Amino acid sequence: MTLILRDKASLREWRAKVTQGTRVGFVPTMGALHEGHMSLMAQARAQADIVIASIFVNPLQFGPNEDLSRYPRPIEADIEKLEAAGVDALFLPSVEDMYPTGASTLVEETMVSGPLCGAERPGHFRGVTTVVLKLFNLVQPHVALFGQKDAQQCAVIERMVRDLDVPVEIRRGAIVRENDGLALSSRNVYLSPEDRAAAPLLRQSLLAVEAAYQAGEHDAEALARIGLSVLAQSERIRPQYWEVRDPESLGVIATVGARGALCAVAAHLGTTRLIDNLVIGRGIAARVPV
Predict the structure, then answer these.
(1) 249 is in an annotated binding site
(2) pTM summary value
(3) Cβ pair 45, 53 in contact under 8 A
(4) Domain residues of the chain, as ranges?
(5) pLDDT score recorded for residue 286
(6) Does 235 carry a binding-site annotation?
(7) Is 3-173 in CATH node 3.40.50.620?
(8) Which of 37, 142, 218, 268 is catalytic?
(9) What is the mean pLDDT of the chain?
(10) What whole-number distance in Å separates Cα of residue 212 and Cα of residue 53?
(11) Is residue 37 annotated as a catalytic residue, yes or no?
(12) The domain made up of 186-286 is a member of CATH 3.40.1710.10
């Protein structure tokens, strides 16, 4: 039975009782759990003695015109999934508990968070780093699991942990996909049937670029144009960006070299924003799940 901890005081009391030497694994989420989340729970179970998850729809990472109010919150179904997965505890705080009246401190990473989703969603990653650091301070995990689908988020959190000397090991879990290649996302439920039919083109654009790279095309701009040309097959897809970037700093690169590259795409289908990515090349590519 998963223990539900509904406030910070309960979490601190639970954490204080964890035996010294017990390895704690942590999977922070915003709920609406799918098989991608559950794969992270399984990896945490394999790497730790105790697994705790959190569900918190963090208002700080939503912009004024984004989907905070309609973000799916099927909490009872989520709890059932966590219990079936053998998760030991769930931290389920309120906004008021996480951000008490008068709270005025924010945490901001200033390099990796800048391009891609950071450019399109100002303040988003500041909200991510703020809540994740708070969660790390409360849970005190030894290892924390994040999904590679949010590759920039992973990179930002890894940089924050390194820069601020946070004693937690960050692990990335591979992207889990539907049979047609669409990356699992809590936002996929918003897609109309027509948009859902077009959505696999995001993954197909990544695979087309990977094939072009393997065939000898290493110019970053040329590879990005190939990716965009695949998305152009559907008028329903409105690309926000298609970029080939350094896999660690996310800086601009001219060619894909020994470090490999992160190919990242974001697009709107109707009112739904989807992202996907793929690491190509050598170097870091061997360490990042695909």
Answers:
(1) no
(2) 0.95
(3) no
(4) 3-173, 186-286
(5) 47
(6) no
(7) yes
(8) 37
(9) 96
(10) 39
(11) yes
(12) no
